[in-house]
Amino acid sequence: QVQLVESGGGLVQPGGSLRLPCAASGSIFSINTMAWYRQAPGKQRELVATINSFGTTNYAGSVQGRFTISRDNAKNTVYLQMNSLKPEDTAVYYCNADLRQTSYNPIYYDYWGQGTQVTVSS
Fold first, then answer.
1. Would you list the DSSP string of 71-97?
2. Which of the residues 21, 65, 113, 120 could staple to 4 if both were Cys, CB 3.0 to 4.6 A apart?
3. How many whole angstroms separate alpha carbon 99 and alpha carbon 23?
């Protein structure tokens, strides 16, 4: 059993900042890539940022330079630091992890959190 739990969402004014943590718990042997996605009302879910087990990061063009993804491997936690927030960043933010549960099963599976709402409005 694996759970991903996001937190840190809320209402923030344009130009403000938020930090979203996502902690993975349960039966986890190793985690490969961790990522953040978001879904705005009436839109498809989109990739925001990824970070692999070596710390290599990638960002969507719309958040490049404003958002920073990081991870703490000892805590199985990924973070999304969001600065200079804009109204168009309003969405439900989802955590994703590509992980392996046991040493004897080499297959990695995708897991998702339940999402946390971020609203950017004055």
1. EEGGGTEEEEEE-S--GGG-EEEEEEE
2. 113
3. 13
CA-derived radius of gyration, the chain: 14
Alpha-carbon span 28 to 76, nearest angstrom: 9
Q: Is 55 helix (H, G, I), strand (E, B) or coil?
A: coil
- Residue 7 sits at φ, ψ, to 5 deg, of -155, 180
* Residues, the chain: 122
Q: Which of 60, 61, 57, 45 is nearest to 94 (CA)?
A: 45
Distance between CA 39 and CA 30 in Å, rounded?
A: 27
What does the pLDDT profile of the chain (122 residues) look like in tens digits?
A: 899 999 999 999 999 999 999 999 999 999 999 999 999 999 999 999 999 999 999 999 999 999 999 999 999 999 999 999 999 999 999 999 999 999 898 899 999 999 999 999 99
State phi, psi for 60 to the nearest 5 degrees: -70, 150
- Please name the residue that has the structure tokens 């290599």: 56
Count CB-CB contacts under 10 A for residue 23: 17
